[in-house]
Amino acid sequence: MSFTIKDIAKISGVSTSTVSLVISRKGYISESTREKVQKVIDEYNYRPLRFARQLAANRTGNIGFIISDVHLSRSEAFYSRILLGAELEARNYDTYLLLSTVPVHMSAPDDIPRFLKGRDVDGVIIAGSVSPILIDHILKLGMPLALVDYRVPGLEIDSIIMDNRYGLSLIVEHLVHQNVTHIGFVGGSFYHPSIKERFEGYQTAMERLGLGDISRNKNYHYLVEEETTTNIGSLGAEQLLKTVNNLQAIICVNDTTAIGCMNKLQSIGKKVPDDILVTGFDDVNYAALTNPSLSSVHVPKIEMGMGAMKLLMDKIENPDKISQTQLIPVKLVERMSSVRPNRK
């Protein structure tokens, strides 16, 4: 038998509006009445229709997921896993996820996602870096917001980020323990906080291990104000070989860059890892399938997406909750690209 809200009200001896308040967890109801109604709901396994719940809670039942179009096209293996994690967690809240991409250099109102213009979502998750115009627009709407792999200094916004600096320290230690000291770094735009933090992690770890002269030497760095691509990895490898005579290893800011780096090295007759060691960061699915397999820092991408959804839903339920930043631990996955052949 299928029960309606009217049936639950009749059995409980209360009005349908009281049942609605219990379901939405809003309004003043005595604790005894709330417990009585909830007991009937549980006893008859009543599950209100999604639309009815939304109406009672004055919500759409939708969450917006926004990502820069350049992130989705160039780093799909990374951000698509975060999207999957958010989608999996959304199911636990019986909530739909609406995806929208935005240009890197956006303008308002033309590039504002349609679901924001129509206020068709209850909150928003943003993955990766986006234009400040978008962040400002969402905050002015007073809409709950959670960031993944991104944060805005000075603003109180729920954020999920990975431990970039620690991840780089693991890579540097892994290389130095093999007596590899002439280590270069290839990266992209510091507009993305993760890129900047990884470079800082490289320099800090090198300094700590007595290699500060190398980490501060610009000949060992290839940094460009562009989104990371395989082409940056290719150009970076080529440039470092020109500026460093005894280059032993290249740390790439992510796996996409590392792939380009290894391709360039192999195209000019340099063997990985025999001649030069290479590492990446993010541990996307194809990292284990390259030849040689790519050492990388593993980032729990699905868990980050799930965590962002939990933070956002908590903010929706508790608007006055203090925003927090969660630092997600990472680990180094050693593969053939960064292990010296004569290592014992």
Could you give a short description of this structure?
44% of the residues lie in helices and 15% in strands. With 344 residues, it is of the alpha/beta class.
Keywords:
12 strands, six-stranded parallel sheet, 344 residues, alpha/beta, elongated, single chain
Summarize the structure in words.
The protein has helices at 5-12, 16-24, 31-43, 50-57, 69-74, 76-92, 114-117, 132-141, 164-176, 193-208, 212-215, 230-243, 255-267, 301-317; strands at residues 62-68, 96-102, 123-127, 145-148, 158-162, 183-187, 221-223, 249-252, 277-279, 296-298, 325-328, 331-333. The termini are far apart. The strands form 3 sheets. Strands 2-1-3-4-5-11 form a 6-stranded parallel β-sheet. It is of the alpha/beta class and 344 residues long.
Q: Roughly what is the average pLDDT, rounded to an integer? A: 90
| Major beta sheet summary | 6 strands, parallel
Residue runs with pLDDT of under 50 for 5 or more positions: none
Structure annotation, total helices: 14
Strand order across the largest sheet: 2-1-3-4-5-11
Gap from first CA to last CA: 69 Å
SSE pattern: HHHHEHHEHEHEEHEHHEHEHEEHEE
Q: Helical residue percent?
A: 40-55%
Care to count the β-strands? 12
Mass-distribution shape: elongated
Name the beta content range.
15-25%
Write the layout of secondary structure elements.
Elements (H helix, E strand, L loop, with lengths): L4 H8 L3 H9 L6 H13 L6 H8 L4 E7 H6 L1 H17 L3 E7 L11 H4 L5 E5 L4 H10 L3 E4 L9 E5 L1 H13 L6 E5 L5 H16 L3 H4 L5 E3 L6 H14 L5 E4 L2 H13 L9 E3 L16 E3 L2 H17 L7 E4 L2 E3 L11
Parallel strand pairs: 1-2, 1-3, 3-4, 4-5, 5-11, 6-7, 6-8, 8-9
Antiparallel strand pairs: 10-12
